[in-house]
Specification:
Radius of gyration: 17 Å
CATH architecture: 3-Layer(aba) Sandwich
Number of domains: 1
Helix content: 40-55%
Bound molecules: iron/sulfur cluster
Number of strands: 6
Shape: globular
CATH class: Alpha Beta
Strand order of the largest sheet: 1-3-2-4-6-5
Strand content: 5-15%
Distance between the termini: 24 Å
Number of helices: 9
Length: 215
C-alpha cells in the first residue's frame, strides 16, 4: 500500500501510527514501561537498524539506543562515516522488557504490526538486525547471531545484514582478529559499502523527485 502513498499521506500515516503506539497496551510490557520507544532518525534513509527492545535509559528518555550500548553504536556508525541521525533506528518491541530480559514471542507478536507498519512506511533498502532477537524474528530462524552475522540475506526484497548487538561488544573487549569487535568492524564496513553503491546507483539513474535522500 505504501508505494502509492504521497509524501503528505505518508506523513499523516506515520503520525497516526506513532500516536497509536505511544498509547498502546496490547501486551503486558505496557504495565511496567515508563516511556514507549517508537524509534527515531531520518525517515528517508535507505538504511534502518533494528534492535531488540528499549533498555533502562531508553525507557527513561523514550529514545532508542541512548544508553551505553547506544553510544557504542553511534561510534561504530561514525567509524565508517554514518551519522546516526541520518538513518532510522528502532526496536522489535517498543516497550522495555523488565530487567532487560528478551521479549517473549507473545510480546513480539503483539508489537509486530507496528514494526511492519513502520517498515512499510520507511521503505528501507538495507536493514541491519542488531543481535539474536531481531535477526531470528525477521528471518524466522533459530540459528544464532554468531553463525548469521556478516551474511547478507534477501528479505522481502530488502538486503538484510545481521550484526552483533553493541551490548554484546561491551562485554567482549578484545579487538583481536576474529573477536566480536573486529567482526563488527568488518560488518559495518560491508554496510557502508552497500550503502555507498546504492547511493551511487541511484545518483546515476534519475528517479522521481522528493523520494529517498542519501543516508
Ligand atoms: S511492546 Fe509493543 S505491543 Fe507491547 S505495549 Fe509496547 S507498543 Fe504495545
Amino acid at each position: 500500500m505504501n508505494a502509492f502513498l504521497s509524501s503528505a499521506n505518508r506523513e499523516e500515516a506515520w503520525t497516526t501510527l506513532e500516536e497509536k503506539v505511544l498509547s498502546c497496551t496490547r501486551c503486558e510490557l505496557s504495565a511496567s514501561r515508563k516511556r514507549v520507544v517508537f524509534g527515531q532518525g531520518n525517515r528517508n534513509s535507505r538504511l534502518v537498524l533494528i534492535g531488540e527492545g528499549p533498555g533502562a535509559e531508553e525507557d527513561e528518555q523514550g529514545i532508542a539506543f541512548v544508553g551505553k550500548a547506544g553510544r557504542l553504536l553511534t561510534q561504530i556508525l561514525a567509524s565508517v562515516g554514518i551519522e546516526r541521525e541520518d538513518i532510522f533506528i528502532m526496536n522489535i518491541v517498543k516497550c522495555r522488557p523488565p530487567g532487560n530480559r528478551v521479549p517473549s514471542p507473545d510480546e513480539m507478536m503483539a508489537c509486530s504490526p507496528f514494526l511492519e507498519a513502520q517498515l512499510a512506511l520507511l521503505r528501507p533498502e538495507l536493514v541491519v538486525c542488531l543481535g539474536n532477537t531481531p535477526t531470528r524474528w525477521l528471518l524466522r530462524t533459530s540459528e544464532g547471531i554468531t553463525a548469521l552475522r556478516g551474511r547478507w540475506f534477501q528479505w522481502r526484497g530488502i538486503s538484510l545484514l545481521p550484526m552483533f548487538h553493541p551490548s554484546y561488544l561491551l562485554r567482549n573487549e578484545s579487538r583481536k582478529k576474529g573477536s566480536p569487535k573486529e567482526l563488527t568492524w568488518r560488518d559495518i564496513n560491508s554496510v557502508k559499502e552497500k550503502l555507498d553503491s546504492l547511493n551511487k546507483e541511484i545518483r546515476q539513474s534519475p528517479g522521481p523527485e522528493g523520494e529517498k535522500t542519501d543516508a
